[in-house]
Amino acid sequence: MFAIGGRKSPLVWAVHLSVLLLVLLWTLPTAGLFITSFRTADQIAVSGWWTALSSSERNQVTRLPDGPGTQATDGSYTLSGTVLPDGGSVVAWGKTSLKPKAFTPGETVDMGDGVTMVVQANGSYTMTGPKALDGGGRIFFTAATPPSFTLANYSKVLFANGMLRAFINSFTVAIPSTVIPILVAAYAAFALAWMKFPGRALLLAVVVGLLVVPLQLSLIPILRLYNNLHDLTLVPDKSLIGQLIDLSGLGTHSDDGTMVGFSSKSYLGIWLAHTGFGLPLAIYLLRNYMVGIPRDIIESSRVDGATDFQIFRKIILPLSFPALASFAIFQFLWTWNDLLVATVFLSHQADSLVMTAKLKDLMGSRGGEWEILAASAFVSISVPLLVFFGLQRYLVRGLLAGSVK
User: Fold this and answer.
1) Where are the domains of the chain?
2) Pick from 93, 126, 158, 223: most CB atoms within 10 A?
3) Cα–Cα distance, 323 to 57 (Å, whole number)
4) CA 237 from centroid of its chain's CA atoms
5) Which pLDDT value is given to residue 73?
6) What is the pLDDT of residue 91?
7) pTM
């Protein structure tokens, strides 16, 4: 990166500019979404987030109240009020929708039949005429609304009916769906990395091949296979398996004291689905990391009489923590933000909805409430951000697993 004579190569500045550009490409949309989450629906409709600190202009219309107005001592009639009950200022106004900026605030305008009208900058208006006023007309005006921010969007997202339950359901789905694949993949990766058995290379090739299988391609076959398990399991109610099935809401009680069948719309179903979809990446990532552990450590442990399980538990697992944390970040982010798998494998009842599904119902089918969408986006990413920043120092080490020797 250094040229002759100790001067830096121009490529250094190109790299720095490229990194800065990438940071801006990621930061600006996030900042815009964050600012939008504190704006009202009216402000979002008329101006972009980059104008949040300046006044925004919007064409509006207000209907005058019915006459006849208040009669003065000289026999004239006056009708007054305001076009801006919520505050702001009038930039211009007009008599028709074709010319909403025909007159300036404070200008007296002839409305016909001897009737005059004036609209002030603060929104107050006065209509004066020689006889009883008909009223019921309309005033078209352009209003400048000062910048304002609100917490109502977050209040609606956080305290809507059933939102707290959905937040807990997301944890119920995400935590086991992250822990179970790590436990299974750690054993499988250790076997593929340090244990010799027939077909190991073929099994590793199958795992690598499963990495390219799309989730959407395997979702329906897995769901049909899982539904076929119904009424195939018969275990005693008082057994450990029976208690676990009962606790997770999977089975139904029969008359002879047994637990029968699996329910496809349960937490176990989505745990197994996320485990199956996450295992190929987990095994591949952990296996590459474990292969990079010095062989001398493993051989010395075996010379000292350590079993494979002791080597795995006391040596491999502690040394593989960066890779475990790296996969945990990705798996947790995926399961926490998942909507497709949760929609398929979980019940659609209100007490079973995860946060993503609840937010979808909250916004409606059209998803037009941008202020709710922006606020819900930051509520939903708050937990993954805590997980990411808590484990970020292990992320790069885990991603680079097996890349060098």
Assistant:
1) 10-51, 56-145, 156-399
2) 93
3) 53
4) 40
5) 63
6) 85
7) 0.66
